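Bug report

Summary: structure tokens for Enoyl reductase (ER) domain-containing protein differ between web form and batch submission.
Environment: batch mode, default settings.
Steps: 1) Submit the sequence below via batch. 2) Compare with the web form result.

Sequence submitted:
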Amino acid sequence: MGEVLKKEAYGLAVKDESGVISPFRFSRRETGENDVRLKVLFCGICHTDLSMAINEWGFTSYPLVPGHEIVGVVTEVGAKVTKFNAGDKVGVGYMVSSCGSCETCTDDQENYCPKMILTSGGKYYDDTITYGGYSDHMVCEEDYIIRIPENLPLDATAPLLCAGTTVYSPMKYHGLDKPGMHIGVVGLGGLGHVAVKFAKAMGTKVTVISTSDRKRDEALTRLGADLFLVSRDPEQMKDAMGTMDGIIDTVSAPHPVLPILDLLKYKGKLIMVGAPDKPLELPVLPLIFGIKETQEMMDLAGKHNITADIELISADYVNTAMKRLEKADVRYRFVIDVANTLKPGP
């Protein structure tokens, strides 16, 4: 075998469990025959990035370049690539590869493949660690690239590659996407606000369930929810018992689930999508969505002009953003302006 060719890259990396992010130079593979290379324009910050940065789940490999809500423009395609061309607007989500031949892969559920490779902090076939989207460019196999609709702004679209699919996929899989259904959304944060938008686009009746009245106007007036329910108000909860076909619970913090279950109709479905702050025996995070569903979600977003509500930040603000994210002090998703603010380190 000849020498593997590499291209220089730069980005932001975490070097240890302190979670501090700093400039980092590294290399990416040359564009292979099935690869797409893209210039990263924007990358969303997911709570998973924070958890991985501080090794909350115990399997982080350092140095870690976070980022799996990546959008950019194709700069080069391999000889066998057929779906993309230079100049296309594209995205990369939570995974960059899988075996492609097992039962789950052939059923468009690559996220369950035993050989699925994470976009950030995974191990690629050549035993190198995968580096995520807090970087100037990416290389990814064609089959794991998502096409971004032309009408969507790229910065506010980036979080859909994780938050959007995290709520869209279970709603579709569990049949909660039928017009006229009554869907509850617990929590109005990064996941919850996107869940409301998709549920409304599907034609359902939406009730936001929150612990206080503080986000009532936000939910009803700006996001278009139909009803607002304060979960700590026993009368409101009693009146809503048995009224919902399904509930998407987006809250990560510990909270009582039984009162929420009481809101469901007979055979209703409660879907938990909030990322826990402690390890679960079943690690749910990599198991959330497949590539086909992610593209379907993005196409629906384009049809209904759905984007995330974001705070656009510069690359030198990331450490501050992580501290704010830890306190849930963001409305509702941070996105790094990679192309305009990321500078090579020393």
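Above is the batch result. After comparison, the two runs are identical; trailing whitespace caused the diff. The CA atoms of residues 207 and 227 lie 4 Å apart. The two ends are 33 Å apart (CA to CA).
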